[in-house]
Write a structure and sequence with these properties.
By secondary structure, the protein is mainly beta. It is built from two helices and 13 strands.
């Protein structure tokens, strides 16, 4: 077990530039993959689980890390906390998690836009959100469209085709 990488953590605001490659030191920031609906398209984003903290590891131990990076690792009773295999397994779990985030619900009267590329004849137009109408294939959004300043018409589009203005 002598050649095992020993992992520690430090608060990055103390020394954010410690991420420059250094032989014998490894860096890790556990992230969650979040998929968000933005302008009618699903977009994958990585989000750090422990924002502001960086995990650093080395076979050479904590003294080597602190000396080379000129940082102070997080301590437990005066000694840097070395993460156990059990703690590392728990941290690695976060790299395997994925969340799908639906946008917040629209509010009646909110100004929205029918997303470009949605296939709607009204794509790209500004509209006023009226209500959600449940349908067999999912939820539809009922919106008011004011075309050419003449009259207001109601139109239903799939809820995920609406974007905030």
């Amino acid at each position: 077990m002598k050649n095992r990488v020993r992992w520690y953590a430090y608060f990055e605001e103390e020394r954010p530039f410690a991420l420059f490659p250094t032989e014998g030191i490894y860096y890790w920031r556990p992230c969650i993959l979040k998929t968000r609906l933005i302008d009618g398209c699903w977009v994958d984003e990585d989000e750090e689980v422990f924002r502001g903290y960086c995990f650093v590891g080395s076979v050479k131990g904590w003294q080597f890390i602190e000396q080379i990076l000129e940082i102070c690792l997080l301590r437990d009773n005066g000694k840097p906390h070395e993460f156990s295999e059990s703690e590392l397994r728990h941290l690695r779990y976060f790299a395997q998690v994925q969340y799908n985030l639906m946008p917040e619900k629209f509010v009646c009267g909110e100004i929205v836009r029918v997303a470009e590329g949605s296939g709607s004849a009204f794509a790209g137009l500004k509209a006023k959100f009226v209500r959600v109408v449940p349908t067999v294939g999912g939820e539809q959004a009922c919106v008011e469209l004011d075309l050419f300043g003449q009259r207001t018409i109601f139109h239903c589009v799939p809820l995920d085709h609406l974007v905030r203005r």
